[in-house]
Amino acid sequence: MSSSLNRQIQQFYDSSSRLWEEIWGEHMHHGYYGRAGTYKINRRQAQIDLIEELLDWSKVRTAENILDVGCGIGGSTLYLAKKFNAQATGITLSPAQAARATQRAQEFNLEETVRFQVADAQNMPFEDNNFDLVWSLESGEHMADKSKFLRECYRVLKPGGTLILVTWCHRPTNSLAGELTSDEQRHLEEIYRVYRLPYVISLPEYEAIALSCGFRDLHSDDWSMAVAPFWDVVIDSVFEPKAILGLLQSGWTTIQAAFSLGLMSRGYQRGLIRFGLLCAIK
């Protein structure tokens, strides 16, 4: 399952990343619109604000050697490397993304300190105790084995290093709302199909996995309200002339993903989709 899924993810991002960059810029992740989601700001500034808010929330003030898991075209990797004057490595399943990220590192004059490569986050090609910050912004949802993924994050971190994991989740099921309903399951399965996800889990489940891996000083949060407006902004951007032309050139997979953006917007509206944060120390 994992190798087949990885190929699907690779093909999805190989075919779509150029278009997303043209529409959204280098940051292929949610934006931050204030804790209540009420800030009226530019989409690209909201994406930068998300990075800064995550660093503030996690109390990470410095880093020397950073791993960005699921780096896309290097938006967060380059931002963090420049901010902290650090070495950084970004990994992705997509050769197209790795190549574009490498090109962008050269444009930023960071090719000596930042590198990108194709690698599987569930089987990383790095030595133990290597990085002092592992940053995973919206890639956990793609992992077929969440436990193996977090064990790998733990393994490559130096003792005392920090994990910042931000990922799509479904609502907790250990509350009065109970287990997911059949309708909620169908909604999630449509999201899985369109965006090449194996499944998502709840934030409490991520916490339990992290603790079982040996992480300590763990804290988590739910920023669903803060990021939910992003999807309405993205939906509007799809109808810009350059986006329509780009969609036609990108193929059916990308077209299907673009016209299924409402799945995520409705998922946030009904409280099914959650934007989960987890920070922990090795």
UniProtKB/TrEMBL annotation:
The protein's name: SAM-dependent methyltransferase
PROSITE patterns assigned: SAM_GTMT (PS51581)
Methyltransferase type domain span: 67-165
Family according to the record: Belongs to the class I-like SAM-binding methyltransferase superfamily. gTMT family.
Record region (SAM motif I): 66-75
Keywords carried by this UniProt record: Methyltransferase, S-adenosyl-L-methionine, Transferase
Source superkingdom: Bacteria
Keyword ATP-binding among UniProt keywords: no
Region: SAM motif II, residue numbers: 129-137
Lineage: Bacteria, Bacillati, Cyanobacteriota, Cyanophyceae, Pleurocapsales
GO biological process: methylation
Gene3D superfamilies hit by this protein: Vaccinia Virus protein VP39
Gene Ontology MF terms: S-adenosylmethionine-dependent methyltransferase activity
Stretches the record annotates as SAM motif III: 156-165
UniProt cross-references to PANTHER family, sorted A to Z: GERANYL DIPHOSPHATE 2-C-METHYLTRANSFERASE, ZGC:194242
